[in-house]
Amino acid sequence: MLKGYVPPYNATVVQKLLDQGALLMGKTNLDEFAMGSGSTDGVFGPVKNPWSYSKQYREKRKQNPHSESGDSDWLITGGSSGGSAAAVSAFTCYAALGSDTGGSTRNPAAHCGLVGFKPSYGLVSRHGLIPLVNSMDVPGILTRYVDDAAIVLGVLAGHDPKDSTTVPINKPLVLSSLEDVSKLCIGIPKEYLVPELSSEIQCLWSRAADLFESEGAKVIEVSLPHTSYSIVCYHVLCTSEVASNMARFDGLQYGHRCDIDVSTEAMYAATRREGFNDVVRGRILSGNFFLLKENYENYFVKAQKVRRLIANDFVNAFNSGVDVLLTPTTLSEAVPYLEFIKEDNRTRSAQDDIFTQAVNMAGLPAVNIPIALSNQGLPIGLQFIGRAFCDQQLLTVAKWFEKQVQFPVIQLQELVDNCSAILENEKLASVSLKQ
Amino acid sequence: MAAPMLRWGCRGRRWALACVDGGSCHRRGAPTGSTSNRIRGQSSVAQQPLHTAQKPRKGEHKWAAVVGLEIHAQISSNSKLFSGSQVRFSAPPNSLVSFFDASLPGTLPVLNRRCVEAAVMTGLALNCHINKKSLFDRKHYFYADLPAGYQITQHRLPIAVNGSLTYGISAGKECGQVIPKMVRVKQIQLEQDSGKSLHDDLRSQTLIDLNRAEGQLRVDANISVHHPGEPLGVRTEVKNLNSIRFLAKAIDYEIQRQISELENGGEILNETRSFHEKLGCTVSMRDKEAKQDYRFMPEPNLPPLLLYDATSLPTGADPQQVINIDQIRETLPELPSVTRERLVQQYGMLPEHSFTLLNEVGLLEFFQNVMKETRAEPKKVTSWVLNIFLGYLKQENLAVSESPVTPSALAELLDLLDSRTISSSAAKQVFEELWKREGKTPGQIVSEKQLELMQDRGALEQFCYSVMKDHPQVVMDVKKGNPRAINKLIGLVRKATLNRADPAVIKEILEKQLSS
């Protein structure tokens, strides 16, 4: 739909980074209009997870007698901001921006072994962020280390007059080192222990809780009772806002326009059919259904009420003395693309967003911190959730945790060396990680 | 795009939408394609009140018509309601369009403070309750002049509700009586207008201008008829009327059309109609579906609009960041109803006169300027301004600002009249001369034309005496009791004095002489 569209302005977050001297390395791939949890449904094709080519993963696979040779078993990055995650993970850049509406930054961060930070709603400007769900979207930050994420957040946070949903911050963001966690209270939401959670991740989650406890922090179980309703609630509100936000894509002022000129209506219909993929079209249809006058009360308004309940769950948990919640980020490690596409986008999104999307509904800050490699040699991350506008505190705790777990650096040197050898022979100047 | 209140067209325009819903609670008809034919003004307009008129017909049953008006008025501000782009008349097409106005992805609405203030002022002027909290919504429909595919408006909770407007209607030309009436204002809402469409039928294409600032008024009228005592009838909506004259014609026509239809056993469809100016009738618009579902949804990018007053203002609040209703109320100029009341009290004029004075642009000021400079009684001034002065203006279709007679000149003239230097009829003559723009003062005209009244009573008595002597028959008629006879004598004396005598004084002298 946005083929050939070059935006004539910079998003506030981009401008702020440029003003601080950042260099824009490039634009990355994603699921179309940020709808998806695999970064597989973009116009430019699916995104490959760099860990597919890591020494850590390859060595484990050699041990597996059933592994196939060739490149057909590459893994997804997760999504929808998978391209940004792949870029940071493969060391092509210092940091990358994504978006996070239901977990789109944290999910690929978990699968790519990165720090994926979702700021509090209202902390970072959405001016220039193509909206998916205006009331839940935030720009997301992907980096390899918490300090880097904090630096980027420090540049981006603050009131933007162009975005009426941002609030002023009263003091600049400075990350201090936390030495003593004994005053900290970590909450473990019991509803997040679901049967679909892989045993590996469950184990790591438990070990993380033990770690905090052994260092003196208080670790308690909390309840977020409306968790089971959040997927459905999210679906209703998300599709409704999507239907509204996508109404502007008609090919008239910018982007793709079809060849039909019989009438305005026909032109709109054809342009939108051609310009949107099935996922997007499906969500638009659902959303419009929920917004119909006869359905509005029963679906949209109901979902808003449930959203309030979900947000209140978090408020109650924090009010009971909890500083930070600790949960898994994903159900499992990254899966191979061929396996991922066996289910449709909607099913996958509903499954994969389970730990992340309630956070967007409540507008809270959250971050994925990579903890360890799985038995397959793939990254696993855990999610920390903080109080609204307590992003600094959240990152402080995350930084302490990062230091404790010492997550390994991705080993792509072999790959690079192999490439260099091949390229030297072919006298090519550039080094690419593509296979 | 953003326009406060009244509905405005143009993207990003400021529109304020005054919505007055007549008696029916029907949903509005869908805007079909043809609605974007017109330019939509920017500005906010207040809600229209509901007006009930009696329209009895020769028939067995009386009919009552119910009319509700939806007025779209553009707010006078420098930039649009939700975007920073400028508002300017007659700018080249698409030259005042910001990224937001063109609905580029990623752009967000930012509310224009001035527009909110204007909406509050309008609400206060129309006796509305100002909602301290109001909300913005999206109203979705697809049309080429609506780039975002939705319009930001205030559907659920508008900025002002439940107001009223008092006005007067004249009971008849002769008696000049004005009957005070009141109309209800249901709500005032801020709304952005869409773009302007120019249909090029020759090339089968439509051109869109996203500037949208034309300053025109646009009214949609909802009309239904019913028998008094029975439930309200089905309403039709006549859209895009942009002059008061056409509005009145369209309403009158539609009322009659509905009555005829019903009296002939037909039925009224809940539909949208447009007014055909040349034919003077309403025609049904292409109606794909009678009711369109706008899929209203809260506007997530605009938090609720909170207004404060003196009691609720948080301490230490930055005045740049808040809107204080009480403060705005203080900046309101004197409202017409208050002015009219004041005129009646201060000058003892009739209410209908106060209406006339206020209904003509500049007339009140003219009147007050005359009052400042003349000794004449207010009633005299009122009469001269409203009857003679206004009459001359209307005859030549001039505005008060184009008048050849200045307030000072009229004041001088009225002084001459008041001091009995000239007679009433002489004064009218002078006025006619003044109107000719020859640059002469009233004093000059009077001396040139020798219009001064005779001051010498003795000489006048002499004239009377001679006239009576010359017309004994008429004198006899007077003595017999013929009331008209004395007028004849007066006329004769006037003629004899070359109209330089005050008829009232003549009459007095004659009567005295006759009785002696």
Task: Give the strand tally of chain B.
Answer: 18
Q: What class would the helix/strand composition of chain B place it in? A: alpha+beta
Helicity of chain B, in percent?
25-40%
Poorly predicted regions of chain B are 1-58
Instruction: Supply the number of structural domains of chain B.
Output: 3
Main sheet properties of chain A: 8 strands, mixed
Distance between the termini of chain B: 86 Å
Number of helix segments of chain A? Answer: 15
Q: Give me the number of helical elements of chain B.
A: 14
Q: Determine the mean pLDDT of chain B.
A: 81
Brief write-up:
Chain A is α+β, with helices and mostly antiparallel strands and 435 residues long. Chain A has 15 helices and eight strands.
Walkthrough of the structure:
- Chain B: Allows the formation of correctly charged Gln-tRNA(Gln) through the transamidation of misacylated Glu-tRNA(Gln) in the mitochondria. The reaction takes place in the presence of glutamine and ATP through an activated gamma-phospho-Glu-tRNA(Gln).
- The complex is a heterodimer of chains A (435) and B (516).
- Chain A is an alpha+beta fold and 435 residues long.
- Chain A contains 15 helices and 8 strands.
- Chain A is globular, with a radius of gyration of 22 Å.
- In chain B, strands 1, 2, 3, 4, 5, 9, 10, 13, 14, 15 and 16 form an 11-stranded mixed β-sheet that branches.
- In chain B, helix 8 packs antiparallel against helix 9 (424-435).
- At the A-B interface, helix 7, helix 8 and helix 10 of A face strand 12 of B.
